[in-house]
Amino acid sequence: MLNISEILSISPIIPVAIIPDGVDAVELARALSSGGINIIEVTLRTPSAIDSIRSISSALKDVCVGAGTVWNADDAEQVIDAGAQFIVSPAFVQTVFEVCTKRSIPYLPGLATVTEAAHCAELGLSAVKVFPANIVGGPAAIKAFASVLPDLKYCPTGGVNLELASDYLALDNVVCVGGSWVIQKDKILAGDWTSVEKTAQDTLKQLS
Q1: Rounded to an integer, what distance in angstroms lies between the CA atom of residue 53 and that of residue 50?
Q2: Radius of gyration of the chain from its Cα atoms, rounded to whole angstroms
Q3: Residue 6 among the catalytic residues
Q4: Residue 129 among the catalytic residues
Q5: Catalytic choice (6, 61, 102, 129)
Q6: Which residue among the candidates 41, 153, 187, 197 is catalytic per the annotation?
Q7: What is the pTM assigned to this prediction?
Q8: Per DSSP, what are the bridge partners of residue 127?
Q9: Tens of pLDDT along 97-147?
Q10: Dihedral angle over CA of 26, 56, 54, 110, nearest 10
Q11: Which of 12, 76, 162, 190 lies 20 to 30 Å from 102, alpha-carbon distance?
């Protein structure tokens, strides 16, 4: 089992995927992996999300699959049973934190303030998601967080695009960013996996 630092170090970007019903989740994750991105966060925003996590986890052992938008303990238990290797929430959720702690699954909660960051650090979390990063204040806000919580690592998500990703990753306390721009909805609906793979390749080149 990977820890949160190892997971966030897999790629400079974690693709955040809202997978519509009927889309082949395995082929999506395979295309990202072929493009060099061996991690994906599948958000619980569609009915097929948990099945998508299960399929990816079963078929692609070299891809780290996580569950996003996890708001309660029941969902946390279900995604872990489906094979999720990490769990992400838009905010800190105590019951989800407790499930992840009990089952030794890395938890990446979202936050928007120093107060929330301090609470997460007090609980022993070493990394958090900043959401929505662009509204919170962008790279300048996260740079300010580091002045008072230098040991905490951040994954900015929400409104992040390729240009902003480079600005975030230039900060010492940012390990990676989360973003959906790598997964273009029209491409996955069309099953255009070649385009998904190329976008992943191009993204990594520009962020290197």
Answers
A1: 5
A2: 16
A3: no
A4: yes
A5: 129
A6: 41
A7: 0.96
A8: 153
A9: 999 999 999 999 999 999 999 999 999 999 999 999 999 999 999 999 989
A10: -110
A11: 12
